[in-house]
Design brief:
Largest sheet: 6 strands, mixed
Structural class: alpha+beta
InterPro entries: SBP_5 (IPR039424), SBP_5_dom (IPR000914)
CATH topology of the largest domain: D-Maltodextrin-Binding Protein, domain 2
Strand order of the largest sheet: 19-23-18-22-20-21
Subcellular location: Periplasm
CATH class of the largest domain: Alpha Beta
Shape: globular
Number of helices: 20
Bound molecules: alpha-D-galactopyranose
Helix content: 10-25%
Keywords: Signal
Protein name: ABC transporter substrate-binding protein
Distance between the termini: 77 Å
Number of strands: 26
Organism: Devosia aurantiaca
Length: about 700
């Protein structure tokens, strides 16, 4: 629908210098996504149906581990487990109690920087850090929890209670749990993580948690070795329980980290701390199910079962069932190829370029892997850098782009200039992709179509709005220029930060460059390796960043504070400038207020209304520029049992968490002989020469 001079809702101001008649396409709601039915639905349960913490009459372990005990090299299993281990209930296991043995073979596209998750080092993604880290609470498996009972699963915190006035939350840690080297896990690890990681401005953990992640003014103290107490400014802010899951509150081994942290080691620098545990530093103590025992650059990270893992099944079998885990260091596209071919075990099929081939092969009877699509939770957006007070220290051109980014006419021009249908179809044809307006994602419970403002493709409107923003092609080269008094009146040139790790990211970025060229905007693609992209983005060194959208726009209740720039280091597109302040635009301040109001209320109707307001603010103001949205599919080798039905590749967390990998097993007659280190266990930390054998 085109309206000439449609000034109402869009609030367009006509410039007198303008000769052409301005066409203005009325914003609408996003088009209905195409129907798609190869999608699996989970069986819904309550949190208590999944697990409990209790002592069992006896415990079991694999025979080869028992051999270590018999040889006097390892305490008996009952002594290695907590007094009350976490017990997974049989009724919630799709195939019941499992058997020991075999390997899960992952393929990942990232590369490990080192094991210091607490200081921000990536281990290469693809579920590797998810598996190493255990967090106070857990959310990945919540896709199968009934909406009425939705609350994070207990994990390192086995239970908690709120004070009468709702400001205090007391958490009880699993008593007697141990790190994979046998060192006790307790409140000391929690307080090191809080004081010397979260509160230390020079240390930022991998997924970027900062004090505001848990609410401004929140404090944490240890009451005794197994009790901690949070104090919040708000009353019963239950969604911080979600913030205590992956990847915000997953403490590292303080007994090892302290030996290198500048506060505890004389003369150590923060840089040295960050890099003290390189990939070659093997057997880093973890609370997760498998421990790294082998690293070969650009080849593999191999892990063996953690003999101190603190989770069991109802028969008292210590988990995990799988003795080994591999992470092949390859590419993300290869992850799909190998999972479909059967040489890898798992992939989140998330690059639409491989959908058709993967679907075709998986449909064959002889296919080694099963494939199931979930909801449309994979979305891409462009985040314009909205800071004008120095974040990332832009030069004159960069600063001029920041000012443009802060101009609503400019952001709308970009949105009108995008042909999202074409962007999606360039990735894959068929009913997969659908235009994404930005903000909350349609398959979520808080999404409201009527509160979603969508600027449909209209090159004419885009051009008119660029002119409104003061951008005219003064030198006739097809690209608009800055006004004469800005950056010397040069061509507007905008860098688009993206990653070359994924074909999808590259294709979308190239599509955006071409579409922007058509409306006269010159975009320069900066396609970088994931680690480098993440570092540049986190330090504000970008004009626009194109990336896959984070999961809080799916769940809302998890990482709620990340929905808006609620703290100086929270938002992807807007962090504090060199003066430490956040120069929020008025609508951003409204978004922040809306998110804070959401956090502060438990009233369901109020929350729904607040998220409508949020969605309207986000999409009307084009806070970030939505591109395309599509479903992903989980591919998993058919030999695995206990794969929960309908596991989404991304909802509360990635599938690698949702799957509950410690419960996966392979029936004996289907076990592979892929173990690289049979009959071995992880050795002492830092030994660097692989696992310890039983003889
Ligand atoms: C990468 C992959 C995702 C998922 C995550 C897990 O981002 O692309 O599919 O495996 O890692 O962290």
């Amino acid at each position: 629908m085109k309206h000439i001079y449609a000034l109402g809702g869009a609030g367009l101001l006509l410039s007198t210098s303008m000769l052409a008649v301005l066409a203005q396409t009325a914003p609408s709601t996003p088009p209905a996504p195409p129907q798609f039915d190869a999608q699996q639905i989970p069986t819904f349960v309550g949190v208590d149906d999944i697990l409990e913490f209790k002592a069992l009459p006896e415990y079991h372990e694999p025979d080869f581990v028992k051999a270590f005990v018999d040889a006097g090299k390892l305490p008996p299993v009952a002594e290695r487990l907590p007094a009350e281990p976490m017990v997974y209930k049989t009724a919630n296991m799709p195939d019941g109690v499992g058997v020991y043995g075999d390997v899960i073979r992952h393929v990942i596209g990232g590369r490990p920087e080192g094991w210091n998750y607490s200081a921000g080092q990536t281990q290469g993604w693809g579920g590797i850090d998810i598996g190493l880290s255990e967090c106070l609470t857990r959310t990945g498996p919540l896709f199968q929890v009934r909406a009425e009972e939705l609350a994070p699963l207990p994990n390192l915190a086995k239970s908690w209670e709120w004070s009468e006035d709702g400001h205090e939350l007391t958490m009880h840690l699993v008593e007697g749990a141990k790190w994979s080297d046998g060192d006790p896990f307790d409140a000391g690890d929690i307080m090191f993580y809080w004081n010397d990681v979260i509160l230390d401005p020079q240390v930022t953990p991998l997924n970027g948690a900062s004090p505001e992640t848990f609410g401004a003014g929140t404090t944490l103290e240890a009451i005794d070795p197994y009790t901690i107490k949070w104090t919040f400014k708000d009353v019963r802010p239950t969604q911080y329980l979600y913030a205590m899951a992956y990847g915000n509150f997953c403490p590292g081994p303080s007994h090892i980290l302290k030996t290198e942290h500048p506060k505890y080691k004389d003369g150590a620098t923060y840089d040295q701390f960050k890099n003290a545990f390189p990939p070659e530093f093997l057997n880093m103590p973890v609370m997760g199910a498998w421990v790294p025992v082998e690293y070969r650059a650009d080849d593999i990270i191999a892990m063996r079962r953690n003999p101190y893992y603190w989770k069991v099944d109802e028969n008292g079998n210590q988990l995990p069932y799988l003795d080994e885990a591999h992470y092949r260091l390859s590419t993300w596209a290869d992850r799909d190829v190998q999972a479909v071919a059967g040489s890898g075990d798992l992939s989140n099929l998330e690059q639409p370029e491989s959908f058709v081939e993967a679907l075709r092969r998986s449909a064959e009877d002889t296919a080694p892997a099963r494939l199931a699509f979930g909801a449309r939770t994979i979305s891409y957006s462009i985040y314009p850098n909205l800071s004008a007070n120095g974040w990332g220290e832009p030069d004159e051109r960069g600063q001029a782009v920041r000012e443009l980014n802060r101009d609503l006419n400019f952001r709308k021009a970009v949105s009108f200039g995008l042909n999202r249908q074409a962007l999606g179809e360039a990735l894959v044809r068929g009913p997969f992709t659908t235009p994404y307006a930005g903000g909350l994602m349609p398959p979520t419970s808080y999404y409201d179509n009527d509160s979603t403002v969508y600027y449909p493709y209209s090159a004419d409107d885009a051009k008119a709005l660029l002119e409104e923003a003061g951008l005219v092609d003064t030198d006739g080269n097809g690209f608009v220029n800055f006004p004469a008094n800005v950056a010397g009146g040069a061509d507007v040139q905008i860098t688009l930060l993206g990653t070359s790790d994924y074909q999808t990211d590259k294709s979308l970025a190239e599509g955006v460059v071409a579409q922007m060229e058509a409306i006269g905007l010159r975009i320069l693609l900066q396609s970088q390796a994931g680690n480098q992209r993440d570092a540049n983005e986190a330090s504000g060194k970008f004009d626009w960043s194109l990336r896959r959208v984070d999961a809080e726009l799916i769940t809302v209740v998890q990482n709620t504070q990340n929905l808006a720039p609620t703290g100086p280091q929270i938002a992807r597109g807007h962090r504090a400038g060199t003066d430490g302040n956040l120069d929020l635009l008025p609508f951003e301040q409204e978004m922040v207020d809306t998110v804070n109001a959401f956090v502060a209320t438990a009233d369901a109707d109020e929350r729904i209304a607040l998220m409508k307001t949020y969605q309207k603010l986000y999409t009307d103001n084009v806070y970030a520029i939505g591109l395309t949205q599509y479903p992903g599919a989980l591919i998993i080798n058919k030999r695995f049992a206990n794969v929960p039905e309908g596991t989404p590749i991304l909802q509360f967390n990635w599938a690698e968490d949702g799957l509950i990998r410690e419960r996966l097993y392979v029936p004996e007659d289907q076990q592979s002989s892929a173990e690289l280190f049979p009959d071995t266990l992880p050795g002492a930390p830092g030994v660097g020469n692989g696992p310890v054998t039983s003889n």
